[in-house]
Amino acid sequence: MQISTLNLENVRCIKKADIYLGENVNLLLGNNGSGKSTLLESIYILATGKSFRTSKLDSVKNFEGDNFTIFSKIEKKGFEKTVGFRKVRTKVDIRIDSIQINKLSELALNFSLLTFHSNSICIIEGEPQYRRRYIDWWLFHSKPQFYQEWLRYQKLLKQRNAALRQDNSLLHVWDEAFAESGDIIDALRKSAIQELMEEIVNIIKNNNLTQFNSLSWQYNSGWAKDETLLSSLKRSHKRDVLYGFTSVGIHRSDLRFYFHGKDAKEFLSRGQQKTLSLIMLIALASIHKKILHETPIFIIDDISSELDATHRYNLTEQIVKLGGQIILTAIDEKDLRFPMATPVSSFVLKQGEVHVL
After folding, report:
1. Half-sphere exposure in the Cβ direction for 247 (13 Å, CA)
2. At 2, is the secondary structure helix, strand, or coil?
3. Please, are residues 223 and 243 in contact by the beta-carbon 8 Å criterion?
4. Regions of the chain short of the pLDDT cut 70
5. Strand 25-29 relative to strand 326-330, pairing
6. What tens digit of pLDDT does each residue of 21-76 get?
7. How many helices (H) and strands (E) does the chain have?
8. Cβ atoms within 10 A of the Cβ of 308, count?
9. Does 196 lie in the same domain as 163?
10. Other C-beta atoms within 10 Å of 272: how many?
């Protein structure tokens, strides 16, 4: 898929911008504070309804205005769509082809977007939720039943937690349905992990990334290995009633990485963790292309400050070879190299204004 146009109004330091993006590499150049990351953030908001820089969308608007607007034309599997996101004070208006939508999942269904930025390292060193999101991104796009089952599980989790606090005599009512839903999601996650880990190993091998040869992983479903989820739920009744929340289930699952038997976040340097996190995203893009016959859009924020020159070039080359649209930022174009004959559309940002090179 690709974004053909991007229109911004009152987004951080950018008062107004109309940008026509190329099909291949789009390079955004400029000093810190010029608005480069704001363009990537805007694309991320269009795809998810959220920002990767802040939890408060109000801080995205220009300080001189009380609203902001992001609009784009996208092409996905041969169809063109318009996507708009507008926030006026407390009201959010999201439209796809001029039709108002109320669920952020509808945005995500229209975008296949992978994002690499300074916080992407959380896939390795962060809380389990970051690794669950990594797995679930692929399931959301590849398994139509996953999202509905995930919604069902979240609803059952709330109902079981309410029963724990209000009337625990009803726990048995929720346990079987909760365990059934958890087992379905657990099976989907295990299958996805197998696919993704095989792809990660192939990327490491094909690129001769010998420092990652000893990579291993372990998936914890969120309950004891020698038990079913249902039996684990029943065994945890007293503890769950005491603390008022469900202590076992796929909402507690985690995917951990190891090198030479040691936790990756303790064994790898910060630079190596960043490299591995980008390899993991490339694996998502690669498997997405193989199975769904579509290459996700890659947005990459200031890769030159995140990776050394050798890894920067080798991994950028891998992304370019996938054949999708890439939008990345840099202070100096000399910090980046692309394979020969790669079409590159370059833009310079100065004080919130976008200029085409």
Report:
1. 14
2. strand
3. no
4. none
5. parallel
6. 999 999 999 998 899 999 999 999 999 999 998 888 888 988 777 899 999 999 98
7. 12, 15
8. 11
9. yes
10. 18
